[in-house]
């Protein structure tokens, strides 16, 4: 429309709190996944929170990353209490505007609670945690590969969930994967955690890739692994997932560490409406409008008519008064 200029620009969120899990495993990779985009976005205040070790210290890898990304401080606390401290602020913990990062069920519940408390005035990236993986496997899949991918998520915690959708594998195919699961799990140092997670995980048997993807989209997994024939083509059927790992040579582990995607992703089915962390998670978008006299004349009719329909007379008059002013013989107007 002539005379009407609208723009949209980005600005960094001033104060961000980054939650780095550390209850059963040290995760400096999460510090990287959160800290680097916060630094690139230009956030003025970066605060990390992570559970300390038994001696009250924090792993040096996380300290190093915090220093490299310009974090102001590290909060030696985990769980819902760390989330509350970041949301409301304390004498020693600065309040932030947004909290990002994955965690267990208590961390996730804490994030969701404070984001709904208007007195906190804080937003969150998404509900993220406990961890999930869904593997879709057909007869072309290597049972050892499938089992290793299931176990790589099961070892995160006993409340992690792993799901296998077996496409036309039959009893023998499923058994081959189960045998690999038990054999590989027995040599893992976190075998007790793995077995606890496996106990409440499920295998679904279907006959077609279409049925498999229908179930996957309904579940909306945090991680979706496609170990099927023509896996790249199957990506077209994905509607809901945090991140997709395509083909036999793309284990979920590469996404956790160095493939280039972010590993902080929505869980609990929230991939239906949330995206994973990215640079945009640390920015806000602002719109602006700039109208000339011609521009206001061009859209004045629509504005005033809508204001009339909505019975918002002051809205209508904010336009009509300007039009009347333009129509005065003495009006010399502005330069624009």
Key structural traits:
single chain, 336 residues, alpha/beta, 5-stranded parallel beta sheet, 12 helices, 12 strands, 40% helix, 19% strand
Q: What spatial order of strands do you see in the largest sheet?
A: 4-3-2-5-6
Count of discrete alpha- or pi-helical segments spanning 4 or more residues: 12
Query: Fraction of residues in helices?
Result: 25-40%
> Which geometry do the CA atoms define?
globular
In angstroms, what is the radius of gyration?
26 Å
The overall pLDDT average reads: 96
Give the distance, in angstroms, between the N- and C-terminal Cα atoms: 16 Å
Low-confidence stretches: none
Largest sheet: 5 strands, parallel
SS elements, strand count: 12
What proportion strand?
15-25%
Order of H and E elements: EEHEHEHEHEEHEHHEHEHEHEHH
Would you tell me the structural class of the helices and strands?
alpha/beta
Report what the structure shows:
The chain is α/β, with parallel strands linked by helices and 336 residues long. 40% of the residues lie in helices and 19% in strands. The chain contains twelve helices and twelve strands. The strands form three sheets. A five-stranded parallel sheet has the order 4-3-2-5-6, with helices on both faces. Strands 9-8-7-10-11 form a five-stranded parallel sheet, with helices on both faces. Strand 10, helix 9 and strand 11 form a beta-alpha-beta unit. The longest helix is centred in the last third of the chain and has 17 residues. The model has no long low-confidence stretch (mean pLDDT 96).
